[in-house]
Design goal:
428 residues; OB fold (Dihydrolipoamide Acetyltransferase, E2P); BirA Bifunctional Protein, domain 2; 2 domains; 5-stranded mixed barrel; 16 strands; 26% strand
Length: 428
């Protein structure tokens, strides 16, 4: 007999074979109901007393039975069991926390300590369905717009984003680093003639922030494209992708979105505001001072409030960041010296993207590297590409866990990582 997934069950004269975990047991003495959970859903099993003998919550079982109609059961069907076999035993005194409840109140750290248990909670699992579909939309959108998927090295010899936030690796007795971003390599691939590329891969940040929005290992959705006019081309692409992504989520994740009580925007038109203008507004309207060349987290939250009221948008592009606040590869605006052709995208008060046009001229790039007090020889592999007709280009990156978190309005980024890595956590 071939195994059937719960989502595919239909009333039939023939018996079916189901596999899954014991989600709930309700024993009424003469009769018992079991909720069986598999990767696709949950179904009620109707059993006789002896059939549930020795059965415990979270045993994995194989069940044979008949699918019958029952108005009272969810989706109107249930399975009348003819046999149950335990295929995976349990060895616990007490489950670390309840898996059954949609309203699980267990603290996040405890859930993360027992991650393979918390992932069984349907509402927790739903986060990763949504995350999967965000990734699917990213792949689908960029592939259908002539971008090619690439995979670039994560063990590298030099930093890209500046700062000291790099993990060092002992690479056969040489010092190497874990990539903070595929930045150089995605640019090099534009130069290699691929023109338009995207990558889904891990990025590593050794930052000491143990906050609700930082991870030390996160998935970066990277895009880079050649022959652009300026950074507005990039914002157009990202905006169009987000429209596509929300459509895709509506089609594929309606139940999951409902579970979290969130709606995706019907229309998307993202305002673009120079950073200095946003800072001025924050000061005048809310008395909120911003650090030079940036907006802190409190400012981002206020900005969201303002943009929501004024434009009915959860998103805002901030543009015209000062040269001093951007990595050395960022293109300066020839019409506004001192400012770059770069942007951030803020979604519901959190930065989810940085992007911009890059320097594509070899001499100019060398000057910038030297100016940033970095060693030219460390970047020789990167600079080489720029000698052979590097076109004007640019790109952006979206943090996968951050966008997932904001779509579902989660309060901590760790909830959107299967096995998060932070300062304290290296297991599971
Ligand atoms: P940036 O450093 O701003 O830019 O990173 C891009 C996006 O990655 C996500 N992100 C993080 N998510 C979780 N934890 C972290 N510690 C973390 N750090 C970054 C955020 C952020 O907006 N090379 C450029 C991108 C480009 O210009 O193409 C870069 O990496 O969502």
């Amino acid at each position: 007999m071939e195994r059937v997934y719960i989502k595919d069950l239909e009333v039939s004269e023939e018996e079916v074979l189901l596999r899954g975990w014991v989600h709930k047991i309700r024993d009424f003495g003469h009769i018992a109901f079991i909720m069986l959970r598999d990767k696709s859903g949950i179904i009620q099993l109707v059993c006789e007393k002896e059939q549930i003998k020795g059965l415990r919550l979270e045993n994995s079982i194989e069940v044979v039975g008949l699918v019958k109609e029952n108005e009272k059961a969810s989706k109107g069907i249930e399975v009348e069991v003819s046999s149950i076999e335990i295929v995976g035993k349990t060895y616990y005194d007490k489950l670390p926390f309840e898996v059954q409840s949609y309203k699980n109140k267990t603290g996040l750290e405890t859930q993360l300590d027992h991650r393979t248990i918390s992932l069984r909670i349907p509402k927790v699992k739903a986060i990763f369905k949504v995350q999967n579909e965000i990734e699917e939309a990213f792949k689908g959108y960029f592939k259908s717009h002539d971008f090619e998927q690439i995979h670039t090295p994560k063990i590298i010899n030099s930093g890209t984003e500046g700062g000291s936030e790099m993990f060092t690796v002992n690479y056969f007795n040489r010092r190497a680093f874990l990539a903070q971003s595929p930045q150089f390599y995605k640019q090099m691939m534009v130069g290699a003639g691929f023109e338009k590329v995207f990558e889904i891969g891990y990025a590593y940040r050794a930052e000491l922030h143990n906050t609700w929005r930082h991870l030390n290992e996160y998935v970066s959705l990277d895009v880079e494209m050649g022959f652009i006019k300026d950074e507005s081309d990039l914002m157009d692409v990202e905006e169009d992708f987000l429209r596509y992504m929300f459509e895709h989520l509506k089609e594929t994740c309606s139940e999951e979105l409902k579970l979290y009580g969130v709606e995706v925007p019907e229309e998307l038109k993202i305002p673009r505001i120079p950073l200095a203008e946003a800072q001025k507004m924050l000061l005048e309207k809310y008395g909120k001072k911003s650090p030079v060349g940036n907006i802190d987290h409190e400012g981002e939250a206020l900005l969201h409030k303002y943009i929501k009221e004024k434009y009915n948008s959860d998103f805002v592009f901030l543009t015209e960041y000062p040269v001093s606040k951007r990595p050395m590869y960022t293109m300066e605006d020839e019409k506004k010296p001192g400012f770059t052709k770069s942007f951030d995208l803020i979604y519901k008060g959190l930065e989810i993207t940085t992007g911009g046009q890059r320097i594509h001229d070899y001499e100019m790039l060398k000057e910038r590297i030297v100016g940033a007090k970095m060693k030219l020889e460390d970047f020789a592999f990167y600079l080489d590409t720029f000698k052979y007709g590097m076109p004007p280009h640019g790109g952006f990156a979206i943090g996968l866990e951050r966008i997932t978190m904001k779509v579902l309005e989660l309060s901590n980024i760790r909830e959107a990582a299967l096995f998060p890595r932070d300062i304290k956590r290296l297991t599971p």
